[in-house]
Amino acid sequence: MQTSELLFLQIAVLGVITAVGMLFTYALPAPSHKHKASSGLYARLFLLFLWLSYGFSNLQYIDMALLHSLGQNLCATLAAYMVYLTVLKRFGQALPKTQRLLILLHIACIEALTWVMHYYTENMVFCRLLLLLSTLMPIVAAALKMLMLMNSRSIGDKVLFYILVGAVVALVLGGPVYMFALQVAADHQSFITFGIIVIAMIVFMLGFVVSVMHSLVIRLKKQIYRDPLTACKNRNYFYDVAPTIVRKAELHCQSVCMLVCDIDHFKSINDKYGHLTGDKALRHFSQLLRSQLYPGDILIRMGGEEFLMLLLDCDLNRASERAEMLRQHIASQPLAVNDDAISLTASFGLLALPAGADVFEIIGEADQALYQAKNNGRNQIIAYGQPFIQTPDSTTLPASSSAPAPGRHTELGAVPATAQEK
Ligand SMILES: Nc1nc2c(ncn2[C@@H]2O[C@H](COP(=O)(O)OP(=O)(O)OP(=O)(O)O)[C@@H](O)[C@H]2O)c(=O)[nH]1
Predict the structure, then answer these.
(1) What is d(CA 311, CA 319) in angstroms, rounded to the nearest whole number?
(2) Quick check: CB of 266 below 6 Å from ligand 1?
(3) Which domains does the chain have, with CATH numbers?
(4) Which residues cross the membrane (predicted)?
């Protein structure tokens, strides 16, 4: 096979790889954010310009040196800027006007310098040096941008960042060797360039895809665990994540309390004011709960008007104080609807988690305490297995016969002193 045929074949194969890569990006889920959605376009343009730069690089073997240098420098620099733009758009950022002008100026300077060098000297060293610096600059800028914007907990972002750092290192160390020291026959050099470009395309596209897919997984996880009405965590979160949180707290020797609460007579709000106002009341209620959370606490809407809180690093004494404060806070913050004020109260079931407790089983006991609070007249707190009942006026009564029997969890501690003193 002749050299020209071989070159043509390599350009064609790289064209097919470019086309497949470009099609592949269309299969990626497009984010709704305008700038983020356009990152796929810039990734495709990166592939296209890299392919074109390979095409132009091969013109040197058929005596079209000026076109080769002008085309290669232009397309390789544009490909490097496409990497920068892909990163910028991945994080939803627009390209500032000044940067746009600087990029245009940079490209115009490169083309002018390339042309001048060709005109005055046969020496290609300057042209190659120019190419190396021109491609290096945008990749370094992309790596720095990535460092500033990336989510350090996202594996996808980390992969893309390390790929960019790898590209910078490869350009700095390998670029001069390849451009100035490698003395091989034309068809061999073209084949090496072909290999380098294919690797650059595959690695960059893989990094881009991993980064996009991983942020999609994070987004989906957020949605799966989020209650759309109140923006609290939902029951899925309780099933999937709560056991891990409790186990971690136990490992750090922290006590954990579970507080379930339920709005009293919520049905009558729906019946009297309608479902939309009922929804408003749920949002209002969840905000009241959220406003009383401490860092590390977890608030979950278990369904309907029932919420669950995991109070971390909090013993039963402190939890009963906090539940009482919460109860009073809810009762003192009616929901304003038109000219009306809908007063809300809630009933609470409280439980300190024994070491090694299964949260899925223990929630049944917290629910029993909650039902007890409802049966006792609502707007009160019952601690499961504790011989006291918290009444609406904050006085503590000894457990009546209707209170939950001190049983499996009496070892959790004595009646909270503060509650008894009140
Ligand atoms: N507006 C609205 N209502 C809901 C939602 N989820 C559940 N509900 C209603 O919440 C009401 C719950 O009623 P019940 O379980 O009888 O409880 P309650 O009226 O609060 O009475 P107690 O809990 O015994 O004090 C039902 O009417 C449900 O339709 C929701 O997302 N929005």
Answers:
(1) 7
(2) yes
(3) 3-224 (1.20.1070), 233-421 (3.30.70.270)
(4) 6-29, 41-59, 65-88, 100-120, 126-147, 159-179, 191-217
